[in-house]
Design a protein that fits this description.
Layout (H helix, E strand, L loop, with lengths): L8 E6 L22 E7 L15 E4 L5 E5 L2 E7 L3 E5 L3
Antiparallel strand pairs: 1-2, 1-5, 2-3, 3-6, 4-5
Length: about 90
């Protein structure tokens, strides 16, 4: 089964945090920053008041305290509301 978010929610595959500095030093897991960027894997249907503008496959940047992490079928996702997305990158 594939997950289907409701309303204006998005399931985002979070970008992996960098585990090494540019100079080659390893960063301990406790000090790693929470990801704030990822690729939309699934999008809800939207609502009559707020249609979905962000499509599957787009890269999004969301607030540091936005969303909730879940694991579904062995894959890690972050559920975020479309309104929590600060901006997205789209191909031209």
């Amino acid at each position: 089964m594939k997950p289907q978010p409701t309303g204006t929610r998005l399931l985002v595959i979070p970008e992996k945090p960098k585990e090494e500095t540019e100079s080659g030093l390893l960063i301990p897991k406790q000090a790693l920053e929470k990801p704030q960027r990822g690729i939309v894997a699934f999008a809800g249907p939207g609502t009559p008041d707020e249609p979905i503008e962000i499509l599957v496959g787009m890269t999004v940047v969301y607030g540091v305290n936005s969303g909730r992490s879940i694991t579904e079928d062995g894959h890690e996702y972050v559920i975020v509301k479309q309104s929590d997305v600060l901006y997205y990158l789209k191909d031209e």
